[in-house]
Amino acid sequence: xxxxxxxxxxxxxxxxIVSMLTGVANLSITQVVSAxxxxxxxxxxxxQYRLPRLILALGVGAGLGISGALVQGVIRNPLASPDLIGxxxxxxxxxTLLLTVFPGAPVWSLPIAAMIGGVSVGLLLxxxxxxxxxxxxxxxxxxIAISAFLASGIDYLLVVHPIEIxxxxxxxxxxxxxxxxxxxxxIWIGLLTLLPYSMWLAWRLDIIGLGDxxxxxxxxxxxxxxxxxxxxxxxxxxxxxxxxxxxxxxGLLAPHLSRLLFGHNHKALLIGAASIGxxxxxxxxxxxxxxxxxxxxxxGVLTSVIGAPYFIFLLKRYKGW
Length: 321
Known about the structure:
The protein is an all-alpha fold. The protein contains 13 helices and no strands.
């Protein structure tokens, strides 16, 4: 177990170093360290471009990983993720609405708009599930329906406002291009606030995993814990999407890989999902920047290339769910 944590940490450090060296200007470790310490010739490239992107990639990936683990813990379906229950679509719809209808809106308004969209969909899902007394599996199906509806709304906005389509498409495909220090407080304050709360929920999710009747008999307030965990997941996913757009499948992949490496205990699972999610987004962003500079691919395209086949594999594996 300790070896796996150490290996994951070392791999993240190695990819972080590669990320700082890679781009249109290939730098040496000496040049990077010199720029961080003393500024100089490569101050802008290192301190205003690559370093904030690296830190944001780690935060966005961690947020998506924790969110996915919480969603799967609540819905008790290994195929559940923030993408599938409509949170990413909600954030994407409101953000696209802002980018197309109010193209001159200030930079800080985009994360707030995306947060409003994601949280609104999360609240709607909770209300529908409570009013209709939906079981977890049907809650996931309801989220998929909401997601499909909002996706059609996004398509409509892009067709009606073709002039602003480029800006919206870059954001919708998931990218850290153009992101910097001004976005940092949104994701990291959210993580530092919601991660401890998620860890507090961890043992309760372990008990819920035993079944509703067992959890209630052991004193767990089922509806309250599920709502709290789902809202934490929604807020983390919304924060991540608000920064980097819709980077698909990280919320699905990270919890699965964490479960394979660290088991089903939610405390280890959440930390593992955060670490693996951070690593996945960092790898995707590094490849997106370094594969064919100065052209930059959206990081979300790369995560989809990996995530879509894995999702098909999971569909076949869990066809009885």
